[in-house]
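Lecture 7 notes: from sequence to structure.

We start with a single chain of 112 residues. Read the sequence below before looking at the structure.
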Amino acid sequence: QVQLVESGGRLVQAGASLRLSCVASGLPFGSRAMGWFRQAPGKERDVVARISWSGASTWYADSVKGRFTISRDNAKNTLDLQMNSLKPEDTAVYYCMMGPYWGQGTQVTVSS
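Now the structure, written as tokens:
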């Protein structure tokens, strides 16, 4: 059974940092690209960052470039998202994805 479990989301003030983590089980972790997505209330789910299977290649949405860093540890089956200089517009449920599988999401709320 494939499982992706996110953690680390919480309420923070603008300017703070958070680190989200996703632990995967039930599939070959090191063979697939992964990504972080987010969905704000009333909006579509959008990609935030992507990382290649090896971790050598990354991509970021313009809205988070320079503030967020995606990383993975294939030995530990974990995917992380370091989020710095958080803004109220970063408020959303954040999802870990390894196609076609999704985690259940973790809520990030940034207060102004």
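The first strand starts at residue 3 and ends at 7. Keep this in mind for problem set 3.
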